[in-house]
């Protein structure tokens, strides 16, 4: 895997990308410049705060800071790109990551204050294409099962195996219908202050889940595949939480970026 202090954050999760080696190169350069292990240097916003400990030109310090970014997407995409900026052949701004904005027309409510950020996500119901498509598939499945059941002779000796098979399909259809209604109906309230994150999910006025975590406890935030759709995934210690299944892809990416940015502050 590597040596602690020189390993990119994603390596602790068993992941590796092209820019993972750039992080290792950055920490090695940092050791040569400071004569200290990167783990001995303080951190700020989950980044190694090396600037007060060495004297570097602003251009080189900015370049090194990008190499040491804890977020994979914020580093250079390749060694050639990093070398081109270091040589002055390309400006660093070419590789800056644009901040996502809340999609226009989204009902998600953002309430930032000096002390905390509150994000309120109302029930999706039939607002998004993902919710509508999933709902139509569920309704078609259940309708087909009802038709098949109405055509057969339920629980007769001759047709019992067939009827049992159709009945099992009907039970499965009922389960996915309840799953669909649940995910379309619940609302989310996400509160982030300087120290902790609080995620609450509400279903018809009942708070059925409350998740609280400090920044250090959050190991992963991303949009991940959840069966046929994607959802926001929040990994806290050894547990993972999925939410926002029927939000639009743009809303999921924006929400994940907001949480990721908070963990870096």
Describe the structure in your own words.
The chain is α+β, with helices and mostly antiparallel strands and 265 residues long. The protein folds into 3 domains: 9-95, Transferase(Phosphotransferase) domain 1 (Transferase(Phosphotransferase), domain 1); 109-123 and 187-264, PH-domain like, CATH 2.30.29; 129-184. Helix content is 37%, strand content 23%. It contains 6 helices and 10 strands. A 5-stranded antiparallel sheet has the order 3-4-5-6-7, with no helix packed on it. A hairpin with a 2-residue loop joins β1 and β2. α4 packs antiparallel against α5 (160-185). The model is unreliable at 153-158 (pLDDT under 50).
Tags for this model:
37% helix; 5-stranded antiparallel sheet; 265 residues; 6 helices; PH-domain like; alpha+beta; Transferase(Phosphotransferase), domain 1; 3-stranded antiparallel sheet
Structural class category: alpha+beta
- Per DSSP, the total helix count is 6
Multimerization state: single chain
Number of strands: 10
Count of individual domains: 3
* Overall average residue pLDDT: 86
Low-confidence stretches: 153-158
Overall shape: elongated
Set out the fold topology.
Blueprint: H1 20-34, E1 43-44, E2 47-48, H2 58-67, H3 79-86, E3 109-112, E4 116-121, H4 129-151, H5 160-185, E5 187-193, E6 196-203, E7 206-214, E8 218-226, E9 229-236, E10 239-243, H6 249-264
Helix pairs in contact: 4-5
Short description:
This protein is α+β, with helices and mostly antiparallel strands. It has six helices and ten strands, in the order αββααββααββββββα. The protein starts with 19 loop residues before the first helix and ends with a helix.
């Amino acid at each position: 895997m590597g040596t602690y202090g020189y390993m990119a954050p994603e390596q602790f999760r068993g992941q590796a990308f092209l820019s993972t080696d750039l992080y290792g190169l950055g920490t090695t350069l940092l050791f040569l410049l400071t004569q200290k292990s990167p783990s001995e240097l303080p951190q700020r916003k989950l980044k190694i705060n090396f600037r007060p400990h060495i004297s570097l030109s602003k251009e080189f310090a900015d370049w090194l800071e990008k190499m040491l970014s804890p977020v994979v997407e914020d580093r250079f995409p390749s060694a050639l790109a990093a070398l081109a900026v270091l040589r002055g052949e390309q400006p660093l701004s070419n590789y800056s990551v644009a901040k996502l904005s809340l999609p226009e027309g989204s009902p998600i409510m953002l309430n930032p204050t000096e002390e905390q950020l509150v994000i309120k996500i109302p029930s999706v119901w039939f607002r998004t294409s993902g919710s509508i498509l999933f709902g139509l598939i569920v309704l078609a499945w259940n309708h087909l099962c009802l038709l098949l059941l109405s055509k057969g002779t339920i629980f007769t000796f001759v047709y019992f195996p067939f009827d049992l098979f159709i009945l099992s399909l009907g039970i499965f259809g009922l389960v996915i219908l309840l799953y669909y209604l649940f995910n379309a109906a619940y609302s989310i309230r996400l509160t982030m202050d300087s120290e902790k994150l609080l995620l609450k999910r509400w279903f018809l006025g009942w708070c059925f889940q409350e998740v609280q975590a400090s920044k250090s406890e959050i190991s992963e935030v991303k949009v991940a595949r959840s069966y046929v759709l994607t959802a926001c995934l929040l990994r806290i210690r050894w547990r993972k939480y999925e939410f926002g299944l029927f939000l639009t892809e743009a809303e999921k990416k924006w929400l994940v970026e907001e949480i990721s940015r908070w963990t870096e502050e």
